[in-house]
Design brief:
By secondary structure, the chain is mainly beta. Helices cover about 5% and strands about 45% of the residues. It has a single domain, classed as Jelly Rolls, CATH 2.60.120. InterPro entries: QdtA_cupin_dom, RmlC-like_jellyroll, RmlC_Cupin_sf.
Length: about 140
């Protein structure tokens, strides 16, 4: 798990604009993201003062999209931290394994869609930050 923050990426999701002014459509298919989706879930009704996440994965990759509203994703590779705000439904955040993530600062009505590379497996999670740092430093 030598993953670095540089491997976290914002990816464009193709957007099809309706020329009749009826709104936009975005599609995730083919090679839009670099993994096959095995699990989909979404977060909603999260209070603005709450946070989600607070873990890293040993194997799983995630792709996060702010379908509505906005939220911040705090990312940590054991050496560096960064914060990325997601607020556009045609851009998603690719988080590889080995990156600690926390989601915070949810706006009212925000919805976070998560596409995951694996089905749920509790043994894939590292939920203790001190353990995460020890694993990352080898």
């Amino acid at each position: 798990m030598n993953t670095k923050l540089e491997e976290v990426k914002i990816l464009e999701i193709p957007k099809i604009e309706d020329k009749k002014g009826r709104g936009n459509l975005s599609v995730i298919e083919k090679d839009c993201i670099p993994f096959s989706v095995k699990r989909v879930y979404y977060l909603y009704d999260v209070p603005s003062n709450a946070y989600r996440g607070g873990h890293a994965h040993k194997n799983l990759y995630q792709f996060l999209i702010a379908l509505s509203g906005s939220f911040d994703v705090v990312l940590d590779d054991g050496n560096q931290k960064t914060k990325i705000t997601l607020n556009k439904p045609n851009k998603g955040l690719l988080i590889p394994n080995g990156i600690w993530r926390e989601l915070e600062n949810f706006s009212s009505g925000s919805v976070c869609l998560v596409l995951a590379s694996e089905e749920y497996d509790e043994s894939d999670y590292i939920r203790n930050y001190k353990e995460f740092v020890l694993v990352k430093r080898g």
